[in-house]
């Protein structure tokens, strides 16, 4: 496989990995927790709109007015004075983030507050929701759960509710960090929140223009919307009507935007307001907050200064409040205040040891975002997935560069381009691109993936080298050569091993009849049948001479599994040769197999310029002798007791002790017949009766032994060991040995 194709595959994998992480809850959490944090801090603080401000109930004001810090304890006639002062200064809307659900301690104060609210006609109150647990989702596709204050508003005092312009809740997620808010609370019956309500009141002057545009698009729906004087219009009814309309007509937003673009009667400010209004109703029910900076980035004036207005010596004038939306609520100026009144939230611009942003300032921030039509907008799901895939694919292409400096430069350029693009879009258009996944996860993954790919390529090269040398040398030697350890490869090593020898019958006669090319092809096919079981069972072919093969299994210590694998190989070789001989396309080559185990020397044997790597030691000679005993016994696989001791997986027939040619010590031999689990009744019967007969032979009970051997031959006339021992028993019967008798069988020829 071409290297470029592997790197393209790596790029595809990295791209898909980024996409998968992005759609997971963990990916969303990472981007919101860290990516959004860094984008805000890279951008830094920006100037908040002047049309929104906060009048803060804080420690300074409490001290100046000789009041407790807790807002609920403040006299309500003080709020009435503030309303009168702010309205006199020309405030457009006054939003109180205070609770007026119960009568105050002084009835006259309540009456004055209600009268002030009614006369002002521009008061909006924040109402509380019943405390409960619920699931909040940052957008329609997120799976991130938070603890929140659930639906169920606490009713305001009836007289207060009638006196104000509107009321709405402003719940915020009680999560580790607040990044978003609701414009419509879906699980509370699509109830609008404070930012949506206040914005709709501000946008009432362009409502008739919106209706006019809607008539051009869909007259029927335009006629169904509320109409009338904006000062008398029911804000809640209007908001619900518009929200339902845009929910049930998803295409309406695009149609209105096109109509708005064509309209020439509206000035730019009104067009901007209508566009923001369309986005309010057509967008997601949750929005990401576009924070302007740390706490009190929204212009904040202490309560006591706003109350005194132009009468104070603080430089505050009526112009500071004219035509402004003013949020009144608790807003701490320092950390100790927050320990007394808890209405603060951790955001991207706060830290555990610093000042947290107040709920009233978050509400003011949300409204300012709506007025500017500039909330933080995550890149669309499809756009983000496509961007992450392209980024990951680009990394795969970059790592095609073979020079390390070139890769480093290309990666640095890619990081700068992507990070710079993400920063530019966030700063200029408040568009939030994934940051942590591409820079923090995809790049490291691509780097380590490239390292693994390079390792794989090097391993593949080594493997090809090993395969080439593997035709001639054992794997251990090849490994040493590949590792540039040539001296190690040719050093001798004493190991414990098993040695397997084979020999084909009738090879000499066959070689005389066939042409050299035919003989070579036949032997190649024959050795293919022999070699495959050896390789499959972790053995190595050490030597091939003519029709004979020598295979070895070696380890530095005696292991049962080594002998077991060798036995498996013997049975598989016998099966493979049977299949080879049954092919019918050539003369059969019956094969004898011998297996022995013990210590042997593996090393380089030779002189001058010719060396061969092979096994050396008595084990090799003994194995060849064991293989030769098959000729006398008519068997196919003979193994020594050193091989079979401790192995229960195989059915073996004990054959007794044999003194082999040129040896001084007998070898206890067994016929390896089959695996224990696949033994037939016939084979089990044979082993049992042969053991009885062999025992009688060793006890010099020649008649008993002959009787059992004859019984075996009646059932299995072709059984070689029974015929071999029957002949010996008959000889001893006719010429009973005198003196000490040795049951060891002596083989005089190879």
Task: Describe this protein's structure.
It is built from 28 helices and 23 strands. It has 750 residues and is of the alpha/beta class. Among the domains are: 203-284, no CATH class; 485-647, Alpha-Beta Plaits (2-Layer Sandwich). The strands form 6 sheets. Strands 15, 16, 17, 18, 19, 20, 21, 22 and 23 form a 9-stranded mixed β-sheet that branches. Strands 4-3-2-10-1-9 form a 6-stranded parallel β-sheet, with helices on both faces. Strand 3, helix 6 (158-163) and strand 4 form a beta-alpha-beta unit. The two termini are 52 Å apart. Residues 133-151 and 485-489 have low confidence and may be disordered.
First-residue to last-residue Cα separation: 52 Å
Within CATH, the superfamily of the domain at 485-647 carries the name Nucleotide cyclase, GGDEF domain
Query: What is the count of DSSP helices, taking H or I runs of 4+ residues?
Result: 28
- Tell me roughly what share of residues is in helical segments: 40-55%
Strand content: 15-25%
CATH class call of the domain at 485-647 = Alpha Beta
Main sheet characteristics: 9 strands, mixed
- Quaternary structure of the protein: single chain
Can you tell me the residue ranges where pLDDT is under 50 for at least 5 consecutive residues? Answer: 133-151, 485-489
- What is the total tally of β strands? 23
Instruction: Estimate the mean pLDDT confidence.
Output: 86
Using the coordinates shown, work out and report the CATH topology of the domain at 485-647. Alpha-Beta Plaits
Supply Rg. 47 Å
What is the CATH architecture assignment of the domain at 485-647?
A: 2-Layer Sandwich
Instruction: State the secondary-structure class.
Output: alpha/beta
Shape: rod-shaped
């Amino acid at each position: 496989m071409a290297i470029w194709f592997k790197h393209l595959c790596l790029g595809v994998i990295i791209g898909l990995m980024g996409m998968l992480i992005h759609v997971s809850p963990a990916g969303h959490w990472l981007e919101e927790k860290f990516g959004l944090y860094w984008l805000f801090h890279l951008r830094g603080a920006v100037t908040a709109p002047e049309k929104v401000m906060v009048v803060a109930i804080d420690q300074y004001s409490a001290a100046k007015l000789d009041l407790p810090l807790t807002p609920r304890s403040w006299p309500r006639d003080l709020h009435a004075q503030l309303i009168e002062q702010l309205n006199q200064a020309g405030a457009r809307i006054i939003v109180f983030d205070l609770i007026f659900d119960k009568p105050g301690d002084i009835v006259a104060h309540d009456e004055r507050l209600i009268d002030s609210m009614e006369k002002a006609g521009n008061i909006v109150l924040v109402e509380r929701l019943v405390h409960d647990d619920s699931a909040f989702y940052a957008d329609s596709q997120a799976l991130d759960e938070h603890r929140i204050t659930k639906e169920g508003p606490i009713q305001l005092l009836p007289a207060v509710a009638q006196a104000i312009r509107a009321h709405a809740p402003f719940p915020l997620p009680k999560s580790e960090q607040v990044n978003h808010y609701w414009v419509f609370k879906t699980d509370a019956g699509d109830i609008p929140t404070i930012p949506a309500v206040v914005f709709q009141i501000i946008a009432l002057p362009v409502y008739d223009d919106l209706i006019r545009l809607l008539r051009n698009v869909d007259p029927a729906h335009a006629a169904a919307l509320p109409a009338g004087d904006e000062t008398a219009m029911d804000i809640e009814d209007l908001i619900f009507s518009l929200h339902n309309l845009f929910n049930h007509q998803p295409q309406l937003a695009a149609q209105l935007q096109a109509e708005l673009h064509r309209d020439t009667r509206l000035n730019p400010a009104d067009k901007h307001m209508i566009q923001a209004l369309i986005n309010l109703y057509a967008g997601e029910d949750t929005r990401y907050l576009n924070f302007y900076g740390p706490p009190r980035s929204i212009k904040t004036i202490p309560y006591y200064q706003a109350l005194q207005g132009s009468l104070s010596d603080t430089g505050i004038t009526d112009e500071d409040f004219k035509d402004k939306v003013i949020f009144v609520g608790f807003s701490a100026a320092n950390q100790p205040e927050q320990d007394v009144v808890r209405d603060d939230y951790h955001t991207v611009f706060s830290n555990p040891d610093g000042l947290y942003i107040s709920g009233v300032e978050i509400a003011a921030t949300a409204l300012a975002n709506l007025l500017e039509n500039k909330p933080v907008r995550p890149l669309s799901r499809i756009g983000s997935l496509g961007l992450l895939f392209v980024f990951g694919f680009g990394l795969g292409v970059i790592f095609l560069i073979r020079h390390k400096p070139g890769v480093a430069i290309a990666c640095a350029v890619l990081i700068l381009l992507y990070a710079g693009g993400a920063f530019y879009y966030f700063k200029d258009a408040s568009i939030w691109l994934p940051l942590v996944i591409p820079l923090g996860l995809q790049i490291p993954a691509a780097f380590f993936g490239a390292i693994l790919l390079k390792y794989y390529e090097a391993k593949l090269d080594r493997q090809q080298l090993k395969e080439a040398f593997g035709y001639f040398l054992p794997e251990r030697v090849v490994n040493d050569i590949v590792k540039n350890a040539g001296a190690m490869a040719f050093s001798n090593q004493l190991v414990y091993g098993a040695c397997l020898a084979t020999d084909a019958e009738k090879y000499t006669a066959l070689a005389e009849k066939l042409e050299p090319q035919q003989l070579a092809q036949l032997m190649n096919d024959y050795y293919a049948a022999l070699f495959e079981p050896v390789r499959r069972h972790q053995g190595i072919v050490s030597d091939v001479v003519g029709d004979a093969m020598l295979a070895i299994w070696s380890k530095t210590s005696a292991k049962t599994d080594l002998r077991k694998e060798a036995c498996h190989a013997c049975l598989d070789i016998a099966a493979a040769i049977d299949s080879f001989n049954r092919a019918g396309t050539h003369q059969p080559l019956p094969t004898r197999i011998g297996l022995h185990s013990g210590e042997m020397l593996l090393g380089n044997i030779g002189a001058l310029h010719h060396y061969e790597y092979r096994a050396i030691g008595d084990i090799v000679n003994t194995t060849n002798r064991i293989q030769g005993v098959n000729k006398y016994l008519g068997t196919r696989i003979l193994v020594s007791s050193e091989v079979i001791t401790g192995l229960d997986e195989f059915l073996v027939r004990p054959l007794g002790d044999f003194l082999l040619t040129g040896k001084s010590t007998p070898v206890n031999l067994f016929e390896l017949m089959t695996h224990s689990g696949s033994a037939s009744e016939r084979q089990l019967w044979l082993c049992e009766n042969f053991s009885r007969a062999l025992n009688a032979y060793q006890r010099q009970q020649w008649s008993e032994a002959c009787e059992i051997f004859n019984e075996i031959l009646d059932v299995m006339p072709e059984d070689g060991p029974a015929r071999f021992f029957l002949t010996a028993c008959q000889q001893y019967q006719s010429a009973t040995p005198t003196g000490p008798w040795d049951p060891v069988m002596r083989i005089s020829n190879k």
